Structure formats: C-alpha cells, structure tokens
Amino acid sequence: MTLKADLPLHADGVNLTLEELLAYKNQAVHWSTPSKSLWSSMAGQHKSATIGRGMDFNEVRLYQPGDDIRAIDWRVTARTGKPHTKLFSEERERPVMLLLDNSGSMHFGSTLLLKSVQAAHFASLVAWIAAREKDRVGMVVYNGHKLRDCRPTARQEGPLRAMHTMITSHYESLHQTAGKLIMSVAIKQLHYLCPKGSDIVVISDFYALTPSSQSLLSELRKHNQIFFVHVSDPLEQGYTSFQGVENITDDKRTTRVDFSSSKPRHALQHQYNTHIKYLTEYTRKLSIPLYQISASKSLQRHLDQLEPISYGRR
C-alpha cells in the first residue's frame, strides 16, 4: 500500500507539475557534492585530456624540464629527494542532452508513480545537476503523437525549458490515445540537435527500442557519451501483493488478469526478463552503460544505490 507521504514533494504520481520538477533544483545541491555526485558517477568528471594548471588535482609525477616550478610538490620532493610536480586536469564543458520517452507504455504505475512521472523526475534532477556544473542542457521528448525539443541552453534556462517541454508533452500524452510516432524518429532528432562531445541520457522503458536504431546510436556514440536509464514498475516483473482480478491496459489493449493465480505473475516475469536480456545485449553491443530506476519509490530513496546493470562491451 502506498501512502501519500511516500510521494515526492508536490507530486500526485500521475500528473506532472512545475512545482514537483522545480523541487529537484535543491536536490541537485545534495547530489553535486563530491561524496554524493550522481552525475559524476554516471558521466565521470567533465575533464579534458589536457593537463595543465587548472582547478582539479590529478596526480604527482617526477619533475620534467619545462614544468611550471610553481607546481612543484615540495612535500613529496623532500620525502623522496627528487623534484616532483603536481598535475592538474582542466575542466571542459560537456553539453547534456536528455531523450525522454513519454509514450503509452510509460503511462503505467502500480505502486507510487507512473513510469513517465518518475522518468521526468530523473530528467529534472540530471538537468539541474548539469546546470549547477555550468553545462548546457537540451532535450528531446516524444510521446507517440508529437516530438518536442529544446536546444542546449546554459544556466537556469536549460532546465526550465526542459521542464516546460516535459510537462507539455506529458499532458498531451495523458489526454490522447496511443500515437504512431516511433522512438527512432526521436533518436534522429537527437542526432540533429546534439553538439559533439555531449553526455546523452536516454530515459525510457525501451519497449519501443528496435534494432533499426542501432546504427543511429552507434553514430552518436562516436562523438558523445551515452547512458541508458531503464524505468520499470514492480508489476511488470510480476511483483504484487494484490490477490484479486484487475484490468491492465497499455493504451492499446486492456487485459483482465487474475492475480490470485501464480500463472499470470510468472508470465509477466518471463516477459520482463526477456526484455531485460534484449536490452542488456543491445547496450553491450553499443558500449552503452545501462542503469535502472523503479517507479515504486522516490528518487531520494534509491539513488544512493544507483549502479549500472550493464557496463557495455569492454
């Protein structure tokens, strides 16, 4: 049973509002600290390979002719008897592009939030963290009916435009029947908008991901870093304490399921495992890290344990 107190601030779990997405601006402060850096754990520090006199300490090595004498590490030099130099890595901006799936299969939730709402919450958190790191933020959202996007923009304008795009798309998709717009169209638009050297975060349940998109993603992967964030619901895995008969719909079909029997739960679990196996192999071929979040609990409750379920091919 889900209590109202379990819901994220300002959220009802179904609709999407500016207030609930703005709340992640304060959460970004928490996750941007070195010990809680969600974005760093996903993307790594936004550092170039250039070694120079920058803000972030990188390593100590033996002094070489031409090194800046101001960078000499006198403690290590005294301890070893040989001159050593501190090296610093220079930070470089990496635009952040978000691809958000807001199609029919994402409008499902059996416990706390619709998957589409949880996806928007995660996108908002990443957008605010990126803005705090002084990276530009852009977005592509598709809902099966319409494609919406905003170009990478700096400062607070980036997250704010992304939130407006998410809210508009979510409202449209809740009030329309399933559309025919496919995910590959959104990936093509992402390819068009994405500056080289971007961090790309794709947030979806990936039921609409087809083999035909592999070539597009492979091309994007050449010049950018891509992350997949899979959004799931416990009922998709057959987990429920409900023992009665209920209708389940995915915007296309409605099925009456008897949860007092183990057969439908096992069938759901098998379908889910098959999908995860497909998605894991898909991301490994493209060397894309795959993360997973659940719509059954708020982000604050499980982001501490956010780990890739697949690291991609090595």
TrEMBL record:
Signal peptide: none annotated. InterPro entries: DUF58 (IPR002881), vWFA_dom_sf (IPR036465). Residues 59-275 form the DUF58 domain. Pfam families: DUF58. This is Cytosolic protein.
